[in-house]
Every structure is written in C-alpha cells, then in structure tokens.
Write a structure and sequence with these properties.
It is a single chain. The chain has 512 residues and is an alpha+beta fold. The protein folds into four domains: 6-131, Phosphorylase Kinase, domain 1 (2-Layer Sandwich); 137-278, Transferase(Phosphotransferase), domain 1; 286-397, Phosphorylase Kinase, domain 1; 401-486, Transferase(Phosphotransferase), domain 1, CATH 1.10.510. It has 18 helices and 21 strands. The strands form five sheets. The protein has a seven-stranded antiparallel β-sheet with strand order 1-2-6-7-5-4-3. Strand 3 and strand 4 form a beta hairpin. It is globular, with a radius of gyration of 25 Å. The relative contact order is 0.09.
C-alpha cells in the first residue's frame, strides 16, 4: 500500500546525521541541486506561511519544479510525539515522517493528496517536502463568493462528501478535516495536512461524526446553507449506509453532528478559521536566524548582519524607537526571561516554551487576522542564553497617539474596538486608556502588552472589561461607549476579491 520510496541515511559529518525518504521521481532533480541530506532539506529558505512555535510551513521555489513547494519543518521531536506514532504503527518517527508515509499510501490507493517529495529527520528536527496544488483555494474562500450559482455550490458539496466517503471506505481517518484543509482547484478537490491520520480496517461511526462536525463547525453560518451542508453529510455517509455500518437514521446522525459542531465552535482554532476569511491578510514571515529572528519579508531582506546582534539582543530590557535600514521608524520592545519551571514544564509536556516576545508576536498576527486596528508586526524573536534564561524582542510599527478624555464619537469606537477584541478571544490586562489609541480619528489598539489571548471569553469577563472602560471615560461618553460595544455586528455577504477566478474553479470541479 506504500510507494517504493528511496530511504537512505544522510551522513555528511558529525553535525549532519539523519534519515531521508525520497520519492524516486525526484531523486535526480534533488541530487543536481545538492539537496541530499536531512540538513540540506531543513536549511532550504522560504517564506513562513503558517505555523506554531515548534513547527511551521514554508513556501519555496526550486529549479526544475514548475509549481511552488511547501516545506513543513519541526524544530523539536518530543518523546511523547514519537511514542504516539509508534503506538499508531508508524515506528519511532516524527509527525512529518508519519505524514510522508500517509501521503505515499494515498497515492498508492489513487486518492488525491499533496504529491510527496521527501521527508526525514536530522537529530532532533524533522521535515516534510511536498509539491503545491496548482491554483488551489481553500474551501472558505470558495464559499465566500456568493456569485457562484446554487447548482455549482451543491455540486461542490456532493464532491466533497464523496471524497470523504472514498477516504473512509479505504480506511483513512480524517481527524484534521476542517475547511482550511479542503483545497479546491481546476483539478478537483484535495485534502491537506495528514499528520494525524492513519490507516485502519474499519472506521467507527463515532469518529465519522466527530470529523464531520469539525468541518461543519469550521465554516461560518453565512458561508454555506443548511441544504449544502446536508449534501456533504449525505454523500459522506451514503457509502457507509450501503455497507451497513450506520445503525441509525440519517436525521439522527445529522442532529448529533450539529450538536457536536456547536460545542467545537468555542475552540480558538475553529474560531480562527471561521473569521480569518473575513479579513484576509496574506501574513508572511521569514526565519532570518531560526527562532532568534523572524521578520516579515520586506524587513527580512534588509536585516542587518550579524542577524543576532544589537539593538535587538545584548541590550537592557526596555522600549525605544529605532530607525530601520529602509528608513522606516519602528517601535522595539526588548526583554529577558528567567523561567526554570516554565522551561521544565514545557519539556515534560513535549511542547515548546514561549517567551513573552513570541507571545506578543503571535498576538499581533492574531489581531491582524481578525481585522483589529493595531500596530503591524515587523519582527520578533527569542534566544536561549542559559538553562533557565532567555532574551526576546518584538519589533512593530509606531503606536498611535494616546486616547485621553474621548468624546462621544471616539467613545463609541472604543466600545466597538473592545467588542472586537473580545470576539477575537482576547481580554484587557492593563488600564483601558493606555491600551487604546487614536490614529486619524480612528480608535485602535495602541499598547499590545495590555491585551492578552484568553482561554475563554465569559460573559462576566466581558462585563468586567466593559465596566473598567466605562469608569475611565467622561460620564457624557459612557452611553455611546456601551452602545458601540453592545451593537450587533454583521458579517458581509461576499468578501472575496477573486470572485471570477474562484467561480471558474468551482465550475470545473462540477463539470468533471
């Protein structure tokens, strides 16, 4: 069930050890480019398009490939992760290597998936290299185009359901089945991100309900009608019903999926998917010096040498304004951390440790994804200076002017901005009027250190933050601020700039 991929040990020196699995069709091309060891794969340069502190995905281009390639890199393979993969039957490997095996199995079964090129590990790091899907758009963007005819949308829904049914019938699990992992192109529909999948003889009904509920929850209510959602479920469960593995009525299963979906909507990962299509940002990062310096492309290309140096490191903690090589003025926040228990706890849990600099960088990207006016992230980084100590920095655009004694017009915007912060899963952790600022008569977030991602936003937390805001503004402006906060927010009906292109792709899928 697996392709005859070439596996070899990459041993160039004591600092370059590992094992690499390569698709035979790509071995010659990679060899001509001098990419033969695990380290050479891991050192490929590109733009970070998504990721987490311990792993990320880069988009890159290589000579000999007409399409862009995507490199998934892991900076740390925990004992817990390897144990889970071993128990699942994939050996003592990383999640990147496991996903590479799954992609090879999909290709052997004739099922769509990203084309596997190579995977491997180098000491404590791992990678997976795949070929991009030409002109692919994720499902959220496709469904955001309300100009697509109803017939084509229903046809697309049936095609997604039939693909899910084919995967489940072949024994492939889909625990990461969400809207952002469903890619639509002229060639058809392809699912991405298979790191948690596995092959099994039979899939339980409980698991099918769980995975379909994730897909259901990851789409906003305005992106798909009830009939379109039911078509996906019907097509996905039809083959299972024929095989006699669905003991319950379709209506009963649909209600269970809907109930499970409602409980999942409070998860931050699901909330981010439901809202990120509303404010597409095209966020990109370049790792200039691994996690020590991560910058947006326009800043990374002019980053000073050596990359790890003054004024970002080797300086006292504090804040200051600096002038960048391109002439732009920016705001620099430096800090130091001593976290013995945090570092130890992260290691025991098999998770990466995050300094305050990484947390603030993530927060700025998060606010931008939700369309909240805030300083723009330019760069951030952290470097470990000892067993328990570390240095970090955050570089962002200049903050707005302070908002003091707001009039009713600005007070209403203050309430609206606070509501947006809460809807994005964040809360205030400092004096409200130091958090907000005014730029060109528009209220925005001024001090990002006064905002924090919250595990959950309860009604009591909302009321507490609103009360704190109302207590620090003039009495004449309080009604306007509360009105701005409590006023209903509606999502636009169509937010995709490339409506014509997406409609063409949806039409081609329907006609196949």
């Amino acid at each position: 069930m697996q392709l005859e991929a070439i596996v070899f040990d990459s041993l160039r020196s004591n600092h370059d050890r590992g094992q690499v699995t390569v698709n035979p069709d790509d071995l010659a091309r990679l060899s001509r480019l001098g990419i033969q060891s695990a380290t050479s794969f891991l050192d490929l340069a590109g733009e970070v398009i998504s990721g987490h502190p311990d792993r990320h995905v880069l988009r890159l281009e290589l000579s000999g490939y007409s399409e862009a390639l995507y490199l998934k890199r892991q900076h740390r393979n925990s004992f817990r992760e390897r144990l889970q993969n071993w128990l699942a039957g994939y050996g003592w490997v990383s999640r990147c290597e496991r996903e590479g095996v799954i992609l090879q199995q999909l290709a052997s079964c004739g099922l769509p998936g990203p084309r596997f090129i190579a995977s491997g590990s180098d000491r404590n790091r791992a990678f997976l290299l795949v070929e991009g899907i030409p002109d692919a758009v994720d499902l959220r963007q496709v469904l955001s185009d309300t100009t697509i005819p109803t017939k084509q949308r229903r046809c697309l829904a049936m095609a997604i359901g039939e693909l899910i049914a084919a995967l489940h019938a072949s024994g492939f699990t889909t625990p990461d089945l969400t809207a952002k992992h469903v890619m639509v192109s002229a060639r058809g529909i392809t699912f991405i991100d298979w790191q948690s999948s596995r092959w099994t003889k039979q899939i339980r009904l409980k698991d099918r309900i769980e995975w379909l509920a994730k897909l259901h929850a990851s789409l906003s209510d305005w992106q798909a009608t009830e009939r379109e959602r039911c078509r996906v479920l019907w097509a996905a469960l039809r083959s299972a019903r024929r095989a006699g593995v669905l003991p319950e009525r379709f209506s009963t299963i649909a209600r269970k999926i809907d109930a499970s979906s409602r409980s999942k909507r409070s998860r931050r990962s699901i909330q981010d998917q439901r809202h990120s299509v509303i404010h597409p940002t095209g966020q990109r990062l370049v790792w200039v010096a691994d996690e020590a310096v991560c910058a947006i492309p326009s800043i990374a290309k002019n980053w000073p040498e050596p990359a790890v140096g003054y004024p970002y490191y080797f300086a006292d903690p504090g804040t200051c304004e600096i002038k960048l090589p391109n002439g732009q003025w920016a705001y620099l926040i430096r800090g130091q951390a001593v976290a013995p228990f945090g570092r130890l706890g992260a290691r025991l849990r098999g998770r990466p440790w995050r300094s305050r600099g990484v947390t603030l960088g993530r927060l700025l990207f998060h606010l931008e994804r939700y369309g909240i006016a805030a300083p723009k992230l330019l760069a951030f980084g952290q470097r470990l200076t000892g067993i328990c100590s570390a240095e970090w920095f955050v570089l962002h655009s200049l903050p707005a002017k302070a908002c003091t004694h707001p009039d009713p017009y600005l007070a209403e915007q203050l309430g609206k901005c606070l509501r947006q912060i809460h809807d994005a899963g964040c809360r205030l952790v400092s004096y409200p009027l130091t958090v907000f600022g005014v730029h060109q008569q528009t209220v925005c977030v001024r001090d990002v250190t006064g905002v924090q991602l919250a595990s959950s936003i309860t009604d009591s937390l909302r009321e507490r933050d609103l009360d704190r805001l109302l207590n620090v503004i003039p009495p004449a402006s309080r009604i306007a601020a509360e009105l701005g906060y409590r006023r209903n927010h509606h999502f636009p009906s169509s937010l995709d700039a490339g409506a014509t292109t997406i409609q063409t792709r949806s039409s081609m899928v329907c006609n196949e």
